[in-house]
Every structure is written in C-alpha cells, then in structure tokens.
Amino acid sequence: MKSFTSVFIAHYKQFIRDRAALFFTFIFPIIFILIFGWAFRDPGSRTFDIGLVDQGSPQSASFIAKALDSVVIKGDKTFKVTTGEMDKQLKLLRNGDLDAVIIIPKEMDNSPQLKQPVDLQVYYDPSQISNQQELIPILNQVVDEIDRRIQGTVRLIGMEEHSIQSHDLRYIDYLVPGILGMSLMFTGVFGGLTTIQQRQAHIIKRLGCTPLRRSMLVFGELLFRMILVILTAALIIFVGRIAFNVQMIGNWGSLCGIVILGTLVFATLGYLIAAFVKTEESAQPIINVIIFPMMFLSGTFFEVKHMPGFIEPVVKVLPLTYLNDALRQIMVDGSPLHSMPINIVVMMVWAVVCLAVTIRFFRWD
Amino acid sequence: MTAMSVRPEAIIEVSDLFKAYGNIKAVNGVSLDVAKGEVFGMLGPNGAGKTTTVEIIEGLRTPDSGTVRVLGMDVSKDVRAIKEHLGIQPQNAALFPTLNVQEIVNFFSSLYQKSIPSSEVIEMVSLQESRKVLFKNLSGGQQQRLSVALAFVNDPDIVFLDEPTTGLDPQARRVMWEVIKTYRRTGKTIFLTTHYMEEAERLCDRVAIMDHGQIIVMDSPQRMIEEHIKESAIQFKMTNYPSQEALTNLTGVTKVVKEEDEIILYTDNIPSTISELLTLASARSSELSDLFIRQATLEDVFLKLTGKRIRD
Fold first, then answer.
1. Which of A7, A8, A210 would you mutate first to test chain B, the one with the most B CBs within 10 A?
2. Quick one: which of A324, A319, A315, A311 has its CA closest to A346?
3. Contact indicator for A187, A232 with CB cutoff of 8 Å
4. Any residues with CB less than 8 A from the CB of B214 and at least 6 apart, and which?
5. What is the predicted ipTM?
6. Residue A275: alpha-carbon gap to chain centroid
7. Between chains, do A3 and B90 touch, taking CB under 8 Å as contact?
8. What pTM, to 2 d.p., does this model score?
9. With an 8 Å Cβ cutoff, are B96 and A212 in contact?
10. For chain A, how many helices (H) and strands (E)?
C-alpha cells in the first residue's frame, strides 16, 4: 500500500510539472468548448431586411408589405420592409444592407383577371445559409397565403400550433459531451505514452530492481488517470454550465460510471500501443494517426451523417462513437445506464480485447 | 558441504549459467561463489557478458539453464523476497526526469519494508546541495551518484554496482570508492562490474575476468598478477618499429604486445632488456619516447589472457 501511494504521488508530481500534459488535459478542451460554443451560438430569431420595388400601383405594394409585416416568429417581426427604386434596392442588396429584394411586376395589378400566376421576382444571396434555410421558405409561405386570400378560396384544413416544453437541443448541448469524450480519449491513450517514455529511459527497468510489483505500477497509474478524468469531466461540465448554461440532466453516478469505463477503454488502448511501439519518437505520430481520425469520425464535434459507404462500418466500431453517444444520452437526455446496453457492451469488448492483446505482446524491457 | 566450509559462508552461489540471444552465447557456462563480506569484481570488455551475468544473478533476467542462489534463496523462485535485501544500481542511470533528488530518494525508500533515512542516503554521495534539483537538471556525474546512492536506500545485504564510476571525474570517482570502502567495513557484500583496472585492483578482494561469455580467470588481484605475470613491464613508443621478432629476441623478453603505437615488453631481466633495447634503437636510429618500467598490473593480466586491452 505504501508503494502504491508512492507510485500515485510520483505520477501526480510529474503530471503537474508537465506543462504540455496540463494544457492538453485541462486547457485544450475548455478552449474547444469556448470557441465552438461561441462560433455556433444560438442566433435567436432574426430580422430580415427586405427591399420592395413596386412597378405597379401602390396598392399592390402596400398589400404585400402589410402581409410581410404581419409575419411574427417567436414574438418578433421577421421582416423589416422598405420601398424604393429598383437600382437603389439592388445596390443595397449587393452591399449586404438588404437580405432580399422583391420586385412586384406591373401585371400584379390586374392579376385576378389574368387567370394565370404572376411571379414576384425575389433577389437574394444564396451563399448566406440563413437565406436558404429560413428566408426563402418563409417567403414561400407568405406568397402562398397572399395567393389564397386573393383567390378567396376557403381553407379546408388549418393548423394550430401547440408547443410542448422539451430540452431545446442547441449545438453547445451536443458539443460538451463530445468534448468530454475526446478528453477521456486523450488522457487514457497518453498513459501509454508515459509507459513508453519510462520504458525507453530504462526507468521501468530500474523499478524492476526493487520489490515493487508491476501490477502496483499499472494500478497506481490507472488510478491516477481515473482521478484525472473525473477532474477533467467536472471542469468541462462546470465551464459548459457557467459559459453556456449547458445542463447535465442525467444521474451523476451513471455519468461517473461511463467516464470510468471510457477511461479504461482508452487506457488499455494506450497500453496496446505501448505493446507494439518501442520509442517515444514513433509513438507520437502513431497515436495521432489513431486518435485524430477517431475524434472526427466519432461525432465529437458534428453528427456523423452521410458518410461514404465504406466509412460507416468504421464509425460503427469505433469506441469513441459509443462513448460520445453514451455521454450525450446521460447528459442531454438524462437516460439511465440500462437504456444503453449496446454502448456499454461495445466499450467493454474493446477494453477486454485491448487488454488481452496487451498481455500477450507487452514487454517491460 | 565440507569442502565449501573452508571459505566463509557463500552469499551468492552461481552454477553452470547459460544464456543465449539467437546465435550469440552471451553467458556460456558461468559458475562462481561470492562470500559474505567480500567485494567481488567482474572485469571484461564490452560485450563479454558481464551485465547479462549480473542481471541474471539479480533476478532481472532468466537464464536458459543453471541455478542462482542468493542469500540462500533460489532466485528463480523467491525473487521478490530477495530484492528486499539487495541494492541494485543498473548501468543506465535514468530516473524520473521531473522529480527532484529528495523525492526520488523518498520514492525508492518507500518501496522497501526497511530503509535508512533519506538524508543519510543523500549525504553519502554529497548531493545535499542539490536535494531540490530536478533529476533532468542534474549533471551527468550527479545523476550517476544519485543512481548509485539509491542502491543503498534499503540498507541491503548485497549491493550490485554495474560500472558505478563510469562518467565520473577522477575526484568524484575517489568519493565513490570511499563510499564503497565505508560500506564494506560494515561487513556487507559488494558485487561490482567495471572496466577500470585500477578500480578493481584497489577495491576488490576477488576478481573474475570475463570474455566471450566465460570466466577465464578468478582470483584476488594480487595473486592473479603474481601467478600470470612474473615479469615486469617495459612500456614505450618507438619510431621506425623493428620486427616483433627483433624485440622478442632481446634478452629476458618473454612476450611482446603492440597496441597501436604503444609497445609493452614483458621481461624477467630488466637491465639486459633495457640496454639491448637502447642499442637496437640507436642502431636503427629509432626514437624512443614515453618509456617507463613498471610492475605488472591487472591490465597486463587481462592483456596477456585475452590479447586485447579492456578499454572500450
């Protein structure tokens, strides 16, 4: 027990004196959360500036302006309408002062008599994502509505909206569990690197000259990593909470369980790497090749959809996919552990396989 | 058992040790005994199998065959119990780079059931001033001294030192010799490997010379010299080198060794050999330099038995 405590303390002291390790463990994930959280913050309901150009009678223009003005989303008016000359309006659009220009053609005045549709001309910049996703669909609805009123057709089916309080999933809510999963992966796998360094520097051999059991060496290191990841998890959740009001809805015990299981998976993966890689110089790139693709393929930052067919099976076996998903289920949905048996089984299989291969091939000298 | 009882109690007993790596027979039939209280030295050039032999005795490697008993226990069975009573300084001095001297000593002390105070360990190798210095910031010599000191933290019955003074300056080397001598006075046993002949001659009660995985001779340094080299050595450098035969034919010369530009004549008749050498040199207009006459040393024994110098 005395030697176990010593191993633990030695790991702790070395860790707090290693600036790179401190940075990657604590600062790096926080930076990710702050940058991504800020860049993809919820814009709320926004107002679109619309320029009207009336080539017909003022009635048509005021009719359409009124219709646009009446559109309200989340209590705010969606459109701010100004009327003006075509050249001037298009210039404002090009400068970015307007989001769209709507031109009302002359034929509009006598459209009811024409018995054929008259098209409003809408100019906008499709490279603005919000135009594509929000402005045009809303405008389409508005035009449909106007069209119906003019034709006087009686609506047969209506729709009334009822809102139900649910967890309004923002990007940051999706991101924070992903960052936590990523951190667990880093902390776990880098344990293997420590082992490679100590073996390469003959420190492990030196310890072999003493009665210290190698199991104590491994358990001391593992326990240190466990405590490290629990601190990291607490820090990440805390920052998510104060900076972006990200709630941790699930059970803290379940979260702890998944955090520990995840750390075991990646710590054994680290030892597996140490079983086959002898030098620190070759270990660094190999670890990068393993963890960086995994970080992106496992839905750390974005949901992985529409992957080419051959990548999908890869995504389906990566342990981080299941860790990230389990963390999200707990933190975002508040799911209990028994609702995620596949996640738990896949991670356990990974840990057991890595451990078995490590025991078979690992060498202490 | 009766035959053994002539010598004091054997604390290390090694018999018929073999260890091969592929085709290389690193240890090729080594047997030796070390008595309690003895300073035992193992000499040999690099690659002779010293370190492999020592590491098998320490229980760090397993032999292909042969038995090792240390403190009366079988190393293949009781290795952890044995390590409790051994102090081992392996050849490579590396330790945790970001722990300081004090922390490293405390760490190693905590691994044993019994240990001596860390301040004593640190004072032993004069590192008091550096106790708060991180290992990576110590000089090479300081690192080496700490590494040796760690072999003493558990007040061991046997200390194994593998090349303990390599990388030390002459003054630090003498300090280390004092450490070994002081320890020896407490009646503890020391097993030393070295390639410094002077170190072996000064410190060791008995020396084994190893080459190609075998012990070629084992005795006290004094007896080893007396037995193998009855002659004295004349050592010099010479321009316009005559044939080896011409030197062998000088009166009294028993053996001629030429190592690069250095020539050693072993002779049982110093006056005749010297005067004939001077005559030979002036006849050939050879210039003699760095000439001196000395008693034979372990180095000469080694040279005679292996045909090469020990220095690497």
1. A210
2. A319
3. yes
4. B28, B29, B30, B49
5. 0.81
6. 33
7. no
8. 0.75
9. no
10. 16, 6
